[in-house]
Amino acid sequence: MAHAHSIDTGASHRSVRSYVVGFILSVVLTVAAFGVVTQQVMGPTESIIAIAVLAFIQILVHLVFFLYMNTSSPQRWNMVAFGVAVIVIGGTLWVLHNVGAHMMSR
């Protein structure tokens, strides 16, 4: 008799409620970003910062509600990889900003 072995991939099965909550949050964040731009309630710099914050929150919503990323043991390496990606992207933006600022000063 062959025994079937199950492999735990760490992905939990979510309910429809979880998908609906994630979808609603995504729509609200998207509408908020469009509202910031179309209503011009802030200056250009503040608008960019607000859109960046809303985009980061939306990334977290997608990771939690659609990609099931959490802090459980099987998901730990995914969280580490996400942290490294954030550091690399943030560092790249910082370096490009500084290069652009120094190039424009000449």
Short description:
The chain has helices at residues 16-39, 44-65, 76-104. With 106 residues, the protein is an all-alpha fold.
Description:
There is one protein chain. The chain has 106 residues and is mainly alpha-helical. The protein has 2 domains: 14-68; 72-106. The chain contains 3 helices and no strands. The protein has helices at 16-39, 44-65, 76-104. The chain is flat and about 55 Å long.
How is this fold's topology laid out?
Layout: H1 16-39, H2 44-65, H3 76-104
Helix pairs in contact: 1-2
Mean pLDDT: 83
How would you classify the helix and strand content by structural class? mainly alpha
Number of strands: 0
Overall number of domains: 2
Primary descriptors:
106 residues; flat; 71% helix; mainly alpha
